[in-house]
Design brief:
With about 110 residues, the chain is of the alpha+beta class. About 25% of the residues lie in helices and about 35% in strands. It is elongated, with a radius of gyration of 16 Å.
């Protein structure tokens, strides 16, 4: 997360997340399976960083609304199938996976 609060006034937990990233037409699209959040970028790393930024916003919103632990809202089977479907005219598209453990800081 962007900033770490005073450890004396917070509790910490983590989110163990799985990202899928695929390439299409020179761009990379990413999907977080556990939160159904998608983002894109000019490289695999850019897509992952964009996902992490959106997840941070989601976590901050959950903390602000006292939704702790942060609720998971997994991508549906249909959303995953659509994400994995190769683009028209391509038999196979490169697919990358990434695991990320993100800290969650919440007021104690």
């Amino acid at each position: 997360m962007a900033s770490q609060p005073d450890p004396g006034n917070t509790t910490t937990s983590t989110l163990d997340l799985t990202f899928l990233v695929k390439e299409h037409d020179g761009e990379f699209a990413g999907l977080c399976l556990e939160l159904d959040i998608a983002a894109c970028g000019q490289s695999v790393e850019d897509a992952i960083e964009a996902l992490k930024g959106l997840i941070e916003l989601y976590v901050l919103d959950c903390v602000a609304m006292s939704e702790i632990p942060v609720p998971l809202r997994p991508a549906t089977r249909d959303a995953i199938a659509e994400f994995l479907r190769p683009p028209m005219g391509l038999a196979n598209a490169p697919l990358f996976t990434h695991r990320e453990v993100m800290p969650v800081y919440a007021p104690a």
